[in-house]
Amino acid sequence: MDTKQVGPRQIPSSGVEMPRGVSALRRMFAPVAQARGVPRAIVVIGTAITLFFIVLAVFAPVISPYDFNQYRTAEGERFVKQQAPSAEHPFGTNVMTTDVMARVIYGSRTALQVVLLALAFSLAIGLSLGLVSGYFRGWLDRVLVLVMDSLIAFPYLLIAIVVAFLLSQTFGRGVVTAALAISATYTPFYFRVVRNHVISIREEAYVEAARALGARPRTVIGRYVLQNVIQNVPVIATLNAADAILTLAALGFLGYGIQPTEAAEWGYDIQRAIADAGSGIWWTGLYPGLAIVLLVTGLSLLGEGLNDVLNPVIRRRPIRRVELPPLDGEPQT
Amino acid sequence: MSSPDTTLERGAAASRDDTPLLEVRDLKTHFPLRGTFLQRVLGRETGSVKAVDGVSFELRRGEVLGLVGESGSGKTTLGRTILRLADPTSGSILVDGGDVAGLSEHDFRPYRRRIQMVFQDPHASLNPAMDLLTAIGHPLKIHGLATTQDAVREAVASALERVGLTPVELFLRKYPSDLSGGQKQRAVIARAIILGPDLLIADEPVSMLDMSVRAKILELMLELKDELDLTYLYITHDLATAKFLCDRVAIMYLGRIVEVGPTAEIFANPRHPYTVALLRAVPDPDPERHVPRDVPRGEVPDAVSPPLGCSFHPRCPRAFEVCGWESRDLKELLETRAAGLDTDARPSGIGDLSRLGEPSRSAIIPPERGHDPSEVVETLSRIRSATPEEPLWTGVRRMRALAEGVGVEFHEPIDPTLLPEGPVAVACHLYDARALETARRAAAESDEISEPR
Amino acid sequence: MNGRERVLSVRRLRVWYGTDRGPVRAVDDVSFDIHQGETLGLVGESGCGKSTLGRGILGLLPEGTATGGEVLFRGTDLVGLPRRTLRAMRGPEIGMIFQEPMTRLDPLMRISEHFAEALRTHEPDLSDAEVRSRSIEALAGMGIPATRFRQYPHEFSGGMRQRIMIALALVLRPKVVIADEPTTALDVLVEAQILSILADLKANFDTALLLVTHNLGIVAESCDRVAVMYAGKLVEEGPARDVFVRPAHPYTRELLRSVISLRTTGLQYIPGAPPDLTDPPPACRFHPRCPDAMQVCATKWPIEQRVYDDQRVLCWLHGPASEIPPGGTEPLVREEIAVAEEA
User: Fold this and answer.
1) Which of B171, B178, B231, B240 has the most C-beta neighbours closer than 10 Å?
2) Domain C1-93+175-272, second-level architecture
3) Under an 8 A CB cutoff, do A3 and C339 touch?
4) pLDDT tens across B386-437, in order?
5) Which of A322, A330, A331 sits opposite C18 (nearest CB)?
6) Can you give the pTM of this predicted structure?
7) Are the beta carbons of A321 and C66 separated by less than 8 Å?
């Protein structure tokens, strides 16, 4: 390396400057590439499953042979009600004469839409409140913690149902309502995690250094605290997404979910399938159920796997066995 | 890295050279304790940690003043208070004559360009998510001193060169986790000097670094002092580096300055017993030295409820009548140093001493259940004759046998203040003629009234 | 220390960790002895392997570490002992004092319970009264009053916690105590108190002490012998007084010069930084930074020599001349140490 003095005016800009966001992301996820063994396998499997469903959701109109509400063919011929799996209907049809497979595929679109929206709401509210509450403390913090802890103490499904019910009066029972209902249950959780992390970070020397430099609170929060808190977010978000799918299905199952005419929803389908079970009709319940299990498992694996890999506390350094060469290879005492 | 503004300011300030750059007057920083719920509801005094308890000093431009003390001395809190990272409870902080102690955060912000801090732990004071270009350039952005990315880059590169982190292109993109301890500390220094400050508060800048690296960083600090016209407030527990670096040294103990003066004088001729003890305890790689045997006993006491009178008196080998004797000293004596090996570790005949934990000028030593106060008297005199050199006995004004036990009364404590003593100032009664006189009179008086033994 | 029993003998000890970039040679062929009642100071800068050595003796190493060589404790080789046997020896035979006493005591257990656990694990036949009296005796020796026997660790200050740790290590009366940076986190007065206690140990119980530290001052004041480590190797070893007055190895000499003490008038330091232990320099590991380096230092491994009275050194400056090839004593020509490699 050249050790000569370089005058200040001669510093060239390095060729291509990575936009800061991208290089920061790369650093954050760098350990994923280095992971080995079981954690890596978990992340890979989880990602694969999740991607599968994402593809299904995005390309639903292309992949699915029928629309989710379609009850007759293009020619106008009505489907057979509750027909067993066959060539035209690989998953069979249900009591509404709609195709089960179509409903499963479109259901994944619904699920992902709702979950993404819910995540966005929860993060926006929970993250910002958590940051402010954790950094400034004082009475604001005490009030918020009281509110959030009370919400956490409630059975989450109850909150979701109540919120869904209330919102449906004004907004109808669509994707947005469901998303808001679900985010109501998870926002306190985000709040609490972020707040606790902020409290521990704000005592760190580099945050105090930022204050000493004269940074305003919003700069300190935005550039110093947030950047370090955000490390946790991918893991929490993924695990939350898994949980949110289940909550959505529960809402649909109980009848507080999305209007069946608006979108296909797995939970609603399962509820409908209960009546069929007695008559030996298994396909209306099995496939939606499998979809739920698979997607939740995929997201959970991804979340847990990411946690194993990214979390510096539990991340396992790869253990390399070492072979000691024989001593007399080096002639010394 | 000096923008036109700072040069102007500095030039203007230099002409007012007789005002000290920094002056602190009777500064106190107390952290209130939360107390129990009941205490808060009833509005009772909950006590506070008196981290800085009345500190005054001056710092002239171009000087290096050392604040030396152990943990609990308040030196770090003092540094943080000056920078308004902690709020002062009372007192004033004068920067070039203007009091900044009461300023709001908003009004104080311009001063942050002039006073910067170098922190102790290089591994923790850099934001792990920022590379050096961003981290060191950030102060410029905060204060609006550089608007274009190129201007920032230029200034940061210049700062990196000054601190010896070259080749600059290599370090601009590095993150803290890629650097060694010494390199991190250099980066922290770069960040501190980029605004062109007048005063640098360095809080233990080298204590977490290896011996050999320390020398490099200290040398850097000295160079920068000359090149950039800096003034340092050097906070440390390490007397050796303080001696090397500082023009004047102030020794702190439990929130107060106990001795202050020119470095050479303090080290050649320490006056305060604490200073003496510190100097003797500093390890030195000279094999002729041996582990000092008469280290003051005990440890730095609790800052919530400091000892009465002089805070150092419980550990001082030369304490006498007026230094602040109280019941807690007696309790400690009876429990620790005079105890036999009874499993209850109290000299025979003496009962429960927990009441003596409340600081007070008088105390009653109860006898053990079923025992007579005369046994307590007996035990006390045994202890006294076994340890006559124990300074506590000088503080005893009167000891009487009472029905409830033995009543011990101590002399009136006097709070020491910093008084000039030749070239230095010391806060110790040994150098205070009036305190010595009061002690002499008190000793004579107590001889008259104590029970014949 | 001739004629005194050798309590601990380390012979050609190696401790290597595995990492992605290759094995880290934390301890690379180290040998020394400690006798009864002797204090050996093991000094070096951070990353030289001294802490690993201390732990390696006790077998307290993470998974995947390879250990080679011998550690003879009163005749038994500790390397390769089954974990259970080793665990039984830790405590009553070999005691350890760690660096951060705050983190080594269980915050949920009272001090009395700490002692009870230590004593009962290794001496299960003691009665309650005996456990109590031995514990209180150990604490009293450290200046901790018995009235505080049932308090929790957080109620004590740092210095007192370290004293509790020492008392815990001593209550089992081990033959050897390994102290890993016992005073680094403590203030200078408390440090002096602790050192004074450790000195008493030697006097009263004839305990052998291995004091691992980077602080040369405390080694000079409290150790009989000193061993200097650099990059995993023991570069010099001998009586403390002799080594400090007449260091045989250039690293020892430069290290002593770089220490800032009350007598320091000018700053000295060693240029460059300690090497990466996965890829140390060939032959003598100090040669890139050594002001006295010769040609042979970069090509041939130095051979351990006995010099002066009782010192061992690993340096070509002390020969043997017969092993140095012709021209080997010429000064070594090296590139300027790039500033980027400065610590």
Assistant:
1) B171
2) 3-Layer(aba) Sandwich (3.40)
3) yes
4) 777 888 888 888 888 888 888 888 888 889 999 999 999 999 999 999 989 9
5) A322
6) 0.82
7) yes
